[in-house]
Amino acid sequence: MIFSDQHRELQRTVQNFVQQEINPNVAEWEKAGRFPIREIFQQLAGLGLLGISKSTDFGGLGLDFSYETVFLEELGGAHCGGVPLSISVQTSMCTPALANFGSQDLKEQFLIPAVNGEMIGAIAVSEPGAGSDVASIKTTAKSDGDDYVINGSKMWITNAPCADFFCTLVNTSEGKAHSNKSLIIIPAKTPGVRIGEKLDKLGMRSSETAPIFFDNVRVPKHFRIGDEGAGFLLQMLQFQEERLAGAALNLKGLENCVSSTIDYVRERQAFKAPLIDNQTIHFALAEMQTEVECLRSLTWRAVEAYVAGEDVTTLASMAKLKAGRLSRSIPDQCLQFWGGMGYIEETVINRAYRDSRLTAIGGGADEVMLGIICKLMGILPGKRKPNA
């Protein structure tokens, strides 16, 4: 990917925002289990950062997804995972389908306020019995005249306690699992919507996460995104941006693990010598940095293909898989080099160890990414490679 001056200016803008508005407050926000999301979103919107790849007709900058990726990569330089996660839910998870397939009315009601930082969105797909297995969701939307009546629940929903609307995947018929679903926007204040208790999590503590319950929730049918029954396909397309975002968000965080560990082992003495003098350690750090660069190359290759209009299901799945793998191995290895200090919660490496673990789970677990890749390689039992 060749960066333009516009890419680099955006990069500097996001770097400055992270360094000035996020990182000085991370320790406080982590302890509180929340951050001032509306204030931060309005600041981001003021810089045009909540609608980078959204149409100018709806308040966005009208740039391609490579600019969105620059934003996401630099956002990952925050000294926590929760704040970047909440922001990326708004930009890359709950609004792509709305922006690409929503009606003019839906975009005016929900996309423009989301881009302007006036509304907070969330993506409501996962359920207690259906995480990565999206086809198994049970939440229903029954037709009743010009409305849908929605019943069911969603689980592990980031931004739920503060969201104004949910981009929700539901079953709108009794048909086959891949053709009976629809994406529907559900305003949070609709009667029958109840947000459960905030969940206590291993990591991502500064983002707020909770279950959602729908009890005879009535919404007009024109709140549906795209055609009835097209929801599974639209969500799969939306997952492409989510998975590319997941890979991009991890790049700077993984680099921070390596760089902070270099600083620590350079100063830490053991057996009358700096730890970094140990070949096992400095070779391992070089190996980790190389792995991060491999992930960066794969991610940007996928982004270039996506911008060119290509199907990037394989590359996005590979990037997400690699990000999940490295987000488990690199923080773990770095924490080991920090020794007892790495086990203390206030350290950067401890927070990275906790926060990054979600990468291999959220947005499709590693095993699901492997299944997608195998299917597209034609190596699943009983499957042939397409066009083979």
TrEMBL record:
All residue ranges annotated as the Acyl-CoA oxidase/dehydrogenase middle domain in the record: 122-217
InterPro entries reported in the protein's UniProt record: Acyl-CoA_dehydrogenase, Acyl-CoA_DH_CS, Acyl-CoA_Oxase/DH_mid-dom, Acyl-CoA_Oxase/DH_mid-dom_sf, AcylCo_DH-like_C, AcylCo_DH/oxidase_C, AcylCoA_DH/ox_N, AcylCoA_DH/ox_N_sf
Keyword list, A-Z: FAD, Flavoprotein, Oxidoreductase
Classification via SUPFAM superfamilies: Acyl-CoA dehydrogenase C-terminal domain-like, Acyl-CoA dehydrogenase NM domain-like
Cofactor(s) named in the record: FAD
Domain Acyl-CoA dehydrogenase/oxidase C-terminal residues, every copy: 229-375
Name the UniProt record assigns to this protein: Acyl-CoA dehydrogenase family protein
